[in-house]
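Annex B.
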Amino acid sequence: MPANTMNEDLKRERQRCSFDPKELTYLLDGGEEKTEERRQREKFFLDDPELSETAPSDYLSHKEKYEHAVKKACIVFKKVQQLQAQGKAGMQNFREVLGGQLGSAILRDGNPLGLHYVMFIPTIMGQGTIEQQAEWISKAWNLEIIGTYAQTELGHGTFIRGLETTATYDPATEEFVLNSPTLTSYKWWPGGLGHTANYAVVVAQLYSQGICHGIHPFIVQLRDEETHLPMPGFENVRIPWNYMLMKNGKVLKDGSYVKSPSSKLTYGTMIFVRVVIVQDAANYLRKAVTIATRYSAVRHQSHIKESAPEPQILDFVTQQHKLFPQLATYFALHYSGAWLWDMYNNVTSELESGELDRLPELHALACCLKAVSAADAAQGIETCRLACGGHGYMSCSSLPITYGLVTAMVTYEGENTVLLLQTARYLMKAWQNCLDGQPLTPSVQYLNSVRRSFGGVYHKSVPWIIASMQRIAAGKIETAHRHMNDKIKRGVNSEDAWNETSIELVAASEAHCKAFIVETYYNSVQQIVPSVSQQLGKALTELCELYAVNTLLKNIGDLLRYSNVTTGDLENLQRWLEELLAAIRPNAVGIVDGFDINDAIIASPLGAYDGNVYERLFAEVSKSPLNAKPVNESFHKYLKPLLKSKM
Ligand SMILES: CCCCCCCCC/C=C/C(=O)SCCNC(=O)CCNC(=O)[C@H](O)C(C)(C)COP(=O)(O)OP(=O)(O)OC[C@H]1O[C@@H](n2cnc3c(N)ncnc32)[C@H](O)[C@@H]1OP(=O)(O)O
Ligand SMILES: Cc1cc2nc3c(=O)[nH]c(=O)nc-3n(C[C@H](O)[C@H](O)[C@H](O)COP(=O)(O)OP(=O)(O)OC[C@H]3O[C@@H](n4cnc5c(N)ncnc54)[C@H](O)[C@@H]3O)c2cc1C
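Acyl-coenzyme A oxidase: predicted structure tokens.
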């Protein structure tokens, strides 16, 4: 492959794009300066020979992969310290390098220090007193200690009120005695707990003066800071009084307990991570759809017209219908994630001044948005993999590993079903308030308007789609609420009625979330369009319309059940969908170019900027140790004796 040649198909695609992808890059980064800063940061890490991938780690053992990851994580940390010394180590740097796409490109096999930054430090900041923050944060930032977040146990991950590890206060010595008394109480899953961390935030049931006060966070030393040998014992481990993080609930030295303003403030780290997961899920989806779109512009296969040459597979409308909704979903989750991040910051600062009013709405939105973004991104990435045929299945395509990273998000930080039921709990209360004429919070205001209007006739606009999706959500919420209360009226107790209605509760929660995402996406694009070129504005509008139309068409059953839509309207929606796919087709490669994802982060022969897929695939497989010699020793050891024995 001659250096720097550009695949002809991609060249043509880039000529036909109606807008300048750089404009989209600047928009997504927040301006040209931010783009430059990001590119510099990426170059600073990706060009470092110690960090660039030599042999793919696919061929390392589990132990080698871990050691390889620790080595690279330490190099990354030192480089972040260099940025810090140059005054360039803002939170975004850390987020990008330690949690985001850049981080996962440098540390393909995971970051042994990841939990230290994304959970251990945020928990101390969110749950520690000022004194405790002063004591621990600088040590943690400077990596004098390495922490993790140990909440989940072998027997409990979801039901944290059921955690079995205990922390019992001993006023005589002013210490807490931590104990994991049963096999099922052993801490399990925390990232870095096995070999990397020497401290942990341990979430345990607090006992003092013989009373259980529920779960609270404690700092526990796991390993000796010099030898890294495990500290003695994992039963009845004693820690000093001030190792209980006491910003919320407190134990005074005499053992008396001071209640937290809300027992749920202990759950704060989980909200933070859920909020960040929305953006992370979007970014992984963006990477996958970049790979699949560029590959689909280069791959020729089959015929549309017998007389014509094999077309780019991106010209099959079914391929467009696989990929373009994923493009649109990236933007939908990106803008929903940005909105949620703003709300999180506002509510968190209100909490600082004891204002708890908006915490329930934040919790409800963080739950359903984390669940829907993780699930939709995972499904979208799998769709991108499938759209690349056999080559999408290769681990070097980066699609399987990206899917694995995102499908884990469906489980961790609150298993999706459980979180959707949390939002449903909020929605049931909201519907009751609506029936009682009580005030509603902003994210459920639509319940009032939907109850008053009949739904309006079809018109080809996103606002009509938003109203339809809100009508579906309100309908599902009302149905679940009514079915549950009918059960209770028939004598079923409320817990059983909840459980028996939980399928409909989850569906109501998902519908509410989808309606929220479409509306947030639409409002965000409406705000942006006046500030960008007419061509980019048109492309962004088409993507938003595509997300709305496609999301509604995936819900035709509910649309027919909860609105007065006609089959004629449905035909109009289908036509609108096909028009949008055709409109987006010439811009598809330009849009993914606008994501400006460095080839080293794409890390896929299918998705490189130059489009030289086949040459890159071949170069990739040549790296396999299995291809180092023409005959593998297994032939002489096993096959040949077998063949001989047959003769
Ligand atoms: C960064 C880079 C990333 C990318 C990198 C990320 C790597 C992460 C690696 C993974 C780390 C982990 O998984 S760490 C472990 C994560 N584990 C979890 O998330 C556990 C999930 N389970 C839970 O959160 C809880 O058990 C939950 C399901 C909410 C149930 O809790 P409870 O039983 O205490 O509460 P319930 O009885 O259901 O409800 C009681 C009331 O409390 C409210 N409530 C419940 N949770 C609340 C909360 N968090 N905040 C406010 N309020 C809350 C409810 O709305 C109810 O309000 P009312 O209705 O008004 O009464
Ligand atoms: C990659 C990864 C990294 C992780 N990192 C950490 C970490 O660093 N620190 C940490 O503490 N934990 C960590 N975890 C653990 C994670 O938080 C838990 O796995 C998660 O909370 C799910 O809990 P669980 O495993 O107990 O699943 P379960 O709750 O046992 O889920 C099993 C099934 O039960 C269902 N279920 C459970 N409760 C209900 C209910 N009330 N209503 C309806 N259905 C229900 C679920 O929907 C699910 O289908 C990690 C997990 C993974 C996969």
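Residues 115, 149-152, 156-158, 189-191, 408, 411-412, 414-415, 417-418, 421 surround flavin-adenine dinucleotide (ligand 2) (CB under 6 Å). The chain has a mean pLDDT of 94. Further annotation is deferred to the next reporting cycle.
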